[in-house]
Each structure stands twice: as C-alpha cells, then as structure tokens.
Amino acid sequence: MKPKHLLIGGLGTVVLLSSFSMLGVFEQKVDYNTQIKPILNKQCIACHGGVKKTAGFSLLFRHEALAPTKSGKPAIVPGDADASEMIRRLTLDDPKERMPLDGPPLSEEEIQLLRDWVDQGAEWGDHWAYTPVEKPEVPRLGSFWNRLGISIPGMAESDETTWAKNEIDHFVLDGLRTVRDTTTDAELAKTLRPSAEASRATLLRRVSLDLTGLPPTPEQVSAFVRDTSPDAYEKQVDRLLASSAYGEKWAGMWLDLARYADTKGYERDPGRQIWRYRDWLIKAFNDDKPYNLFLTEQLAGDLMPNRDPVTGLPPDDQLVATGFHRNTMNNDEGGTQDEEFRVAAVIDRVNTTWDVFGGTTFACVQCHSHPYDPFTHEEYYKYMAFFNNTRDEDVTTDTPTLRFYKDKDSVRVQELYSWMGRLAPPGQTAQQRQFLRTLEPKFNSHALDQYQKASLLDAKFFGILHEGSGRLPNVTLTGQNRLLLAWSNETPGATLTIRRDSLNGPVLVSLPVPAPARDTVQIFPIPEVAGRHNLFFRLDNPKGGNKWVSIKWIAFQRAMPGQPADRLGAIETEYALLLNKRPQSTPILLDGTGDLARATQVFDRGNWLVKTKRVQPDVPKSILPLAPGLPRNRLGLARWMTDRKHPLTARVAVNRFWEQLFGTGLVETVEDLGTQGSTPTHRALLDYLAAEFMETDGWRVKKMLRRMVLSATYRQQSAASAALVAADPTNKYLARGPRVRLAAEQVRDQALAVSGLLNPKMYGPSVMPPQPDGIWQSPYNGESWKLSDATDRNRRALYTYWKRTAPYPSMITFDSPSREFCQVRRLRTNTPLQALVTLNDPVYVEAAQTLADCVREQARTPEEQIKAAFRRVALREIEPRKLAVLLRLYRNTEQHYRQHPDEAQQLMGFERASPALAALTVTTNTVLNLDEVITKE
Fold this sequence. Notes:
alpha+beta, 15 strands, 41% helix
C-alpha cells in the first residue's frame, strides 16, 4: 500500500474513533485516584479512616470498605449504587442521618461521581507514588505528523525540535502543548511557550551556584563567553561536577536531612564530636557514591559484609556513615529517664528514614493507622523493630563510638592486633578486637536495678554507698571468664562483691576498688559459670562515708587465647591500658545481640509506657513485600528500599534533586508524595527520571544532575513577561528558568568568595566564625563561642559549629532549621531581618571592606570602582541607572564621613580610616545586598 493511502487510512481511523467517543459509545471510566480519593479524603476519611472507624466503616482499604458495618448493612456494594448504604446516606435530607454528619452535603456532581464509581465496581486504585516506577515513552516533538511517527520530506524542522536539548525537554514541551491544546484562554495558549536561553554569564552563575554553591570567577565567565565550541557549556558543567566544592555544596544540603549538629540538643545541649560524618558526606558526593550504596551505608554501614580481617568490623568509613542516625538528640539533663529518650531517638530514626528516603508522612502511624495512606498502626512498630536493637541508650558518653587511636597509641593497637593474630585466628579474639574500637558490647550502668543505698547519680551513672547493692539481671555467663568494669572512686579500702542469683548467693568475684580512680577500666578474671544469672553487686566501703563508688559500664568477655585463666596475661594488660586511653571518637550505630537484644512491642496509641503485642521486623505490604532472602535487620531494610521495584526511593531522590535546581520539586511537597501531598506537575517526567536514575545512571547522582542542568528547560532565562507570570505565577509549567533566593549558606559563601576572603580548606572539626555576643547561653558548662583564627573563620558555611539551641544567627534568619529534627524542605521567607544581616553582620561587613580594598586597587575613580565591584559580584556590567544610584550613595556617604570621621573609623575598625574607603565599603556592602546578588537568576 502506498504511503498516501496509509495516511488517508490512518486519518479515517482517528475520525472514526473520535466520533464513537462523541456518540458516547465508550462509557467514561471514573478514576479512583484523581476523582474519588480526593472526595473521600476531604469529606469522609476523618470519621471513616485510619484514626476513626465510626459505625465500623473505614475507607482506608478496599477490604475494610466492603466489609459489613456495625448495622450489618454493606456500605458499598460493588456494581450496585442503589444497594449501597453509603450512597443512600449521602442523598438523605435528614441532617441526623445524612452524611457527612455535621457538615455541608456533597455536591450533586460529587455524589454522581461516587454513584458511577460504585456502579462500575468500586475499584480501588493505589496512589501513583505507591505504584512501581514504569519508564514512560519519551514524547515526540515537531508537527502533528512527526508526533505520529510519520516523516514528510521537505517539512521544516519545528522550533520545538531545535529548542530541546534532551528528553527532559520533550516532557516539558509536551506539557506546555497539552495546556495550550486544552485551554479555552487564547492569551494563555499564546503565552505558554518556552523561553530563550539565559545569557552566558547568567547561566554559568546559575549552574555554578547550583552544583558547587559558589559563584564563578570573572575570569571563568569571560572564558565561557569567549568559548564558541558547541560543547562549551557541557565542559563547564563537567568542570563543576569534578570540583571538590561540589561535594561541599550537596553535603550541606544533606545536613538538614540528617539533622546534623555539633551538639546533642535538649536543655543542656552539650557538644558532640560527630564532624567525621559531615566529612564522610562530602567525600561521598565528590566520589559520586551510588545513591543506593549511599543510602545503605547510612542506614546499615555497621552490618555490611565486607569486614576488615584485622578488626572484624566493616571499614571505618562505613561505620562513620551510620552517624546519619546518630545525629538524633540525647538528653543529658539530670532527672531524665534514659529509656524514654532512647525510644524517642528510635522513633525519630523511623520518621526520618521515611521523610528523607520515602517522602511519606509515616510519623502519624505511631499513634494510629494512617488516615489517608495505606499504613496500619501495627506496621509502624514492625518497621521500628529494624532500629530498636541499636546499642545507643541516651547515655552521656554517646556510646557506641568508633575510637581513633593516634600516634604511639595507634602503633600499640596494631601491635596488639598482630599479637592476637599470632595467638589465635581472628574469630577467637573478635570480642576484644571490636571492643578496642567501639567499647561494645557492654551493659551501661542504668541496666542495674533493685537499688539499696544506691542510686543512678544525676540519672546518669550507677552509684553505690557502703553496704549498698544493686542487681544486673539476666546475664549469660556461659563461656565468659573476664569481667570488665569502668568505675570511679575517691576513698581507699572499698571492696565490691558480686554474687549470683541473690544477695546471699554464691560469690562470683570479690574485687578491690581502685582509689583514686576516674572512669578507670579494669579487667578481672572470673570463674567459669554456665547459664543466665542475676548478678548482685554489694559494696563494702567502711571509710567511704557518703562518698559514692560509681560504675559507668560492665562487660563480660572470654579470655584471650594463651592467657592464664586466673590472672591477666601480658597481652590482656596491654589491652586494658589501651581501653583506658581517651582517643578521638565519633558516634556510630551497632546492633545488640544476645542479652542486649530487645523485643519490639506495639505502643498503645503511641505511648511508650503502654506496650501491647510483640512484633518482628517487617515493612508495609502496600509498598513492597520484603524479599524472603533479605535479613530482618537494617541491612535487609536498606536492600528493600533500593530494590528496583520499590516505588518511592528513586522518585523521592530525583524530586529532591529537581527541587534543589529549580526551586520547586516536580512534586512541590518534597516531604510528602502521599495522597495528601501536591499533585506532580509532570508525573511522566518524574517517573522517567526515576527510571533513568536506577537503570541508566546506576544510581549516580552526578549523572542525574548533569542531565538536568544540560536540559534546555534548565537553561531558560528566568525573566518573564507580565502575561507569563500572570498565566503561571509559580512556573509549574516550566516555561521559564528558575529564579529563587540563595540558601543561607550560599549567601554567606558568595560574599566571602567574591571578596576573596573564602578559605577553601576542607574537612575537620567545625569552626566558629564571628557572631554577635550573647547568642550562647550555657549555664551548665560555661561553654562559649570561641572565635576561630583569621583563616578558619572564613571557611565555607557548612563547617560552622552548629548548636541546636542557639544556631548560627545569620543562617536562621535565612531560613535554615535548628536541626533538632529532620527538615526535608526549607520554606523561603523574605523579611527585613535578612537585609539587616547582609548589611550589618560582621562577616558581610568584613567582606565589603575587603571588596572595597580590592576594587580600589583596580580603578582610580569612584565610578570605575563601583563598576568593578558590581562586575565582580554580579558578573556583568552595571546598568547606567543603577550606577547613578550607587554613585549617589557613595558621594553622600563620603560627605557624611568627612563630617564624622569617628564613624568611619568605627566602621573600618582602625584609626585614620579615610572617608573615601569607608564610603566605598558602604557601597560595596550595598552591592552585596542587592536582590539580584542574593538571588539565583
């Protein structure tokens, strides 16, 4: 058949099908997700959902909705709306029986939709975000015939095909075309067209800020403008992705999600050494660690199978990665109960995992089944069971920690490992190898109970007086013939006796208490005893008076091979000496086993004190069943989350990346892709990117970001006509480029960079740049803000010391969170305080001073100096109108400082400061404060 006949036949088929539709041959199918679920969520679910099931009727799951109600009548009879009690009650006139009760009736259109839905079988539908990611076809571009896949010789290429750079643009153009084709607003159809590409200077500044958090230099902009090669922009993108600043920028974004801070939170908010986790993040992003591995190491790095043959532990970096969930707060306040806040930390880990990786409001399931999404109350605690065995217990020592021995101590540790290796295979000394690095497993002193003349001192450590006692319950002694104690004592002559099973039971061991001793670790031989026993500790301290003997922790181990059974050998003596060292450390996750394993129970209405049914680790079946071969621990959980069939992980990740680049996610509610979240503006594009991220990119973040920033959609100019802004004020159709205010960290880093003050030093402990006096109030420990030296104070913002109860003030003013809890999305505000920060904060004043010094050396006249400052900051030439305003500011300010030289000296910080330099500083400070400077255009 000739092509002409094929064309006519195809056109006839289209017309015929269209006529069938117009004649109503095919009944319009009601869609549950887009048409029915919104009505149920708005009108019904509050009384008939996961929280309440009034009259025994719930609309959360289909099987519940079709089950008999308390009255015995079926609320919904699939296929028969007239027999469905729900439909009848919606149409009654009596307000005592009509539903919704105590609310306005549903509209006729809503009732008809529900009736049609029931008549069509009351089919349920999974919310789009909970369905597997299926890769959609990339929309075709060009003319009508091109989109049908028909090429006609001689037909000119359309503007769309020349504009598009990659597949992202196909989806965006298809969305714009759909709006134009379906709208009755001719002006809207005319307006919604893609915008031209931004100028080269603007584009390079935009992509530099997005990928590295720093602006380009004027020299880099000039080189890009001069580069006429077809791949000039691609080369700039690749340069930025390879920059070490890239890892710093994206790690800074992740710190909000990880609720990273240098303090523990709550009332006392003391310091915590966890900066190694921040450094791990930077390296992970710079190394382009695959996102599935990035997720797995943070959730379960301690459970990874690739163990170090010497220590028996996973590599240090995988252990450090688990700091993600050690960023939870600890309550060191006296009088608190450790178990209460341990549980609070575990709950925070559950909620944060879902917020960050699942984009779902799982937290409310703690108290009741989800009112809108398919998660039951019991499933929350099955999921919590994955995290409930971690060894941290809200103790002040922050254990477990990974210990980093340095210098001679590091050499001694390696010698000890070698010594162990010569005595026996590593498995026979596994306890000691792990204990050297982590001080686990052990019993923290709050595990003791049945106090007599004993107490948990300041709710922290077990303290015992003369003739006092306490019990350590249910300890397995089989195979354990070494006792390890960390204890403190002030007076000599004390003896601690440990008996089995009762205060008068057989003596296990009698120990002299060292004095004076401060958190001293000692190892004692104990006799071989089989089985589990309650151990009773009794102190004889006749000279102690009211002096306490304090026990911090207790551990039981097997003696090392080759050592005497009844006394410590040389190798164990060296082992004890190393345990008494105080090396640097960082908090990590480790799971407890044996006596330290915990059972998980459902909390009645979320109350941790009222436990009910015992549950095992499991995942919500509505998402994806846990594969039979996966371990029921955090490693298995991470494998489940990164399964190709998991519907949320990749979608949430690419939506977050999109939000970071474009200012708003494809789903605006980055924190909630569930039924109460925003509808995707480009669902097909989101699914395409999620599939590409997993399949083509191999979970590599750099590849996904490169695809996004190379798109024509990203490269568009952000300037828009009044008509386009009116038609699409939030840019949901993506007909223009992103224009958003810089994040708090970027505002500060940019000021330091353009002034030449920025110190590029990477890694290490957090620093303390200038901040106003009186911000810190630390009455418990007298901690104060100690200004870092002249170079460290000008490091990038992500290295700034973060105190949860008093965060760095200029960051808070620009909407950064306190990081007490995970914050998935920063909501941008615009307040006068922000301008006061950039005009008056010491960091910005110093940046303005340095910038003024710099441009004064480059140009002679004030006019040329202002031009140079603007060019250095905004990376383009200043418009005459703006120049005139800034020049007038300079002259007025200079005149003022000539009349008030003391104010010039106060601003500049040194005597004989010239009015001209002070005026130039005020002017450069104003340039740094311009909207176009603190905005990404």
